[in-house]
Write a structure and sequence with these properties.
heterodimer, A: Uridine Diphospho-n-acetylenolpyruvylglucosamine Reductase, domain 2, Enolase-like, domain 1, four-stranded antiparallel β-sheet, 13 helices, 11 strands, about 30% helix, B: alpha+beta, Ubiquitin-like (UB roll), DNA polymerase, domain 1, 5 helices
Chain lengths: ~325, ~170
């Protein structure tokens, strides 16, 4: 499949990349290319300019409190310090796609992953044959026809645990850098997806020093264990004080257009013991609060029921101390 | 408009004229005439196009040629010749890890990256390593066997069993 023609720019610093973006408003940033290039091959929202970030080495560093957007998923999965301090982040990076894709795919690419939909991730001819959907420049959503909002499913994994752990994202733009809490970054809309302005570049993820005090877990449902986009993901971060819960964050991921922090379920357990019954109750509550739509391979009702099962698994793993390096 | 890219392919420095949107796979096949690397799904799903970039197995269908400039690119052609197969190729051939053969260059390059990193992988590590490569013929069992045989062949020294506790010297009869 041919890529559409574009002009490639190869900045070597973040400042250069941001300046190029200002110069060419009709452009995309390219990191690992494992999401953008397949979309370009399918003629999905292509641009005449591409800003390749492969020479911007300042964004590759990994530490338990600050990870560069160009760190590859493989590097994150292999990083000893990440496994030591925030194992759920290292583990989740290893659950994304296949080893081949993880060798190229980056943290920034996963956080900015295009939302996916059965009616969007198709060839040009396929999409044209049933009229383009909203996300591909059409006028109607094929998933919820009466709606003018896009329902494409959020399919990135890392935002789940990062939101649960209280991470913030650093964005570099023409007027300097700013930080946005991960929980406020994503919008529940398949087209207007996030708080990053078009002229900004996501540069770093900051994890609070307290993140290492949490026991966390990420449970992912997918059709093929070897590699697939999530059909759902449940991230939990649990902080205990003696026998009782001091803080609990539960994030339902890949079920709607954005990851959803279920604040009330987590805060309802504060000060209580995390018994099996409490876990069952929390898992049941998650099932009632998620609203998947029919635009992935598995049915919404199944994914909803599985949200309960996977929340239970996540809470049990977090209670037991979180993931360990295999 | 074409640009001149400096690529090092299989140890040979080359200058290739390619447009900005050129994919590494196309440059290898069309400009370098190295057609061992195959185009399967062209979407990063099947792993047929796997090559090594600086020793790491990567999808050449999802890598711009410009992204690989200045790096060491290794394709299946660098491994062996028809008369003198590389131990990985020989293992795939002898064990039956290859049937129609279309996915085989990808599997071989993934195996090369695995064995360079981990000369003695166990079953789980092999399955994990090849999980991004698809084969529709073999059912994978023979591929896993081939990787194990290749690992043995490539081991620096044959693994010696630990000597048993010294038995008392036999008396001459």
């Amino acid at each position: 499949m041919l890529l559409p023609p574009f002009q490639l720019h190869e900045p070597t610093t973040v400042a250069e990349a941001v300046a190029l973006r200002q110069l060419h408003p009709e452009s995309d940033f390219l990191a690992g290319g494992t999401d953008l290039l397949p979309n370009y091959k399918w003629q999905l929202n292509t641009r005449p300019h591409v800003i390749g970030l492969h020479k911007v080495d300042e964004l590759r560093a990994i530490s338990p409190t600050k990870i560069g957007a160009l760190a590859t998923l493989k590097q994150m999965n292999m990083d000893g310090a990440l496994w030591q301090e925030v194992p759920v982040v290292a583990q989740t990076a290893g659950l994304i796609a296949s080893p081949l894709i993880r060798n190229s795919g980056t943290l920034g690419g996963n956080l900015m992953l295009e939302n996916r939909c059965f009616f969007f991730n198709q060839s040009y001819v396929w999409r044209e044959s049933i009229d383009f959907c909203l996300k591909a420049g059409g006028t109607a959503c094929h998933v919820v026809p009466q709606e003018t909002k896009c329902y494409a499913t959020f399919s990135a994994d890392l935002p789940g645990p990062l939101i649960a752990l209280g991470a913030t994202f650093e964005l570099a733009g023409p007027s300097g850098t700013r930080r946005v809490p991960a929980v406020e970054f994503y919008k529940n809309d398949g087209i207007d997806r996030h708080a990053k302005r078009p002229d900004e570049l996501l540069t770093f993820v900051h994890l609070p020093p307290t993140a290492s005090q949490y026991r966390a877990s990420y449970q992912k449902l997918r059709q093929r264990e070897s590699w697939d986009f999530p059909e759902l993901g449940i991230a939990v971060a649990l902080k205990m004080k003696g026998e009782t819960v001091e803080d609990l964050q539960i994030v339902a991921n890949a079920l709607e257009c954005a990851p959803k922090l279920l604040r009330d379920i987590g805060s309802g357990l504060r000060g209580k013991k995390l018994t099996d019954a409490a876990i069952d109750e929390a898992a049941a509550a998650v099932e009632t609060q998620v609203r998947p739509v029919k635009n992935t391979n598995l049915s919404p009702s199944y994914r909803k029921r599985m949200a309960r099962v996977f929340t239970k698994r996540a809470l049990l793993e977090a209670r037991a101390g979180g993931p360990r390096r295999a | 408009m074409n640009k001149i890219l400096k690529l090092t392919v299989n140890g040979v420095a080359r200058e290739v004229a390619a447009p900005d949107n050129a994919i590494l796979l196309d440059v290898l096949r069309e400009s370098c005439r190295l057609t061992g690397t195959k185009r399967g799904c062209d979407m990063g799903t099947c792993g047929c196009c796997t090559v090594l970039i600086d020793g790491e197995n990567r999808l050449s269908c999802l890598t711009l040629a410009a992204q690989a400039a200045g790096k060491e690119i290794t394709t299946v052609e660098a491994l062996g010749t028809p008369n003198r197969l590389h131990p990985i190729q020989a293992a795939f051939s002898e064990i039956g890890g290859s049937q129609c053969g279309f996915c085989t260059p990808g599997f071989i390059m993934t195996t090369k990256a695995l064995l360079d990193r981990n000369p003695d992988p166990d079953d789980k590590e092999i399955r994990e390593a090849i999980s991004g490569n698809l084969c529709r013929c073999t059912g994978y069992i023979k591929i896993i066997d081939a990787v194990k045989v290749a690992a043995k062949e490539l081991a620096p020294e044959p693994a010696r069993p630990t000597p048993p506790i010294a038995a008392p010297a036999r008396r001459a009869k």
